[in-house]
């Protein structure tokens, strides 16, 4: 959890109000959880919130998705970067060959 909190600290400031900041944290923890379906309804239930809370974060809360993406990239590069490395994201879960 400490590593998650460190990573989340890189983006927390992008949410100017505490409510969407808390909701974003819950949303990300839900995405990382073992829930079967990652819908707003399921993620809100996992967080103990009403279903509309996650939907409001994604549809109505004011935050800059591009800036959050850039912050996450900066965090990953800072924490795990290698000047000769390449990061390839693949959510299929299929075993890959190579290094």
Which structural traits does this protein have?
globular, mainly alpha, 99 residues, 5 helices
N→C terminal distance: 27 Å
* Main sheet record: none
Strand content: under 5%
Q: Helix segment count? A: 5
- Which segments are poorly predicted (pLDDT under 50) over 5 or more consecutive residues? none
Mean pLDDT across all amino acids: 87
Explain what you see:
- With 99 residues, the protein is mainly alpha-helical.
- Helix content is 60%, strand content 0%.
- It contains five helices and no strands.
- The protein has helices at residues 2-12, 18-32, 40-47, 51-59, 65-80.
- Helix 2 crosses helix 3 and helix 3 crosses helix 4 (51-59).
Q: What is this structure, in a nutshell?
A:
By secondary structure, this protein is mainly alpha-helical.
Q: What's the helix and strand layout?
A:
Blueprint: H1 2-12, H2 18-32, H3 40-47, H4 51-59, H5 65-80
Helix pairs in contact: 2-3, 3-4
């Amino acid at each position: 959890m400490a590593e998650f909190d460190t990573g989340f600290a890189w983006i927390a400031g992008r949410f100017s109000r505490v409510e969407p900041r808390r909701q974003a944290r819950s949303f990300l923890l839900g995405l990382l959880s073992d829930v079967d379906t990652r819908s707003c309804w399921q993620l809100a239930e996992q967080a103990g919130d009403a279903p509309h809370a996650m939907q409001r974060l994604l549809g109505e809360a004011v935050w800059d998705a591009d800036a959050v993406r850039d912050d996450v990239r900066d965090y990953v590069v800072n924490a795990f970067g290698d000047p000769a490395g390449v990061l390839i994201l693949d959510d299929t879960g299929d075993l890959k060959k190579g290094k």
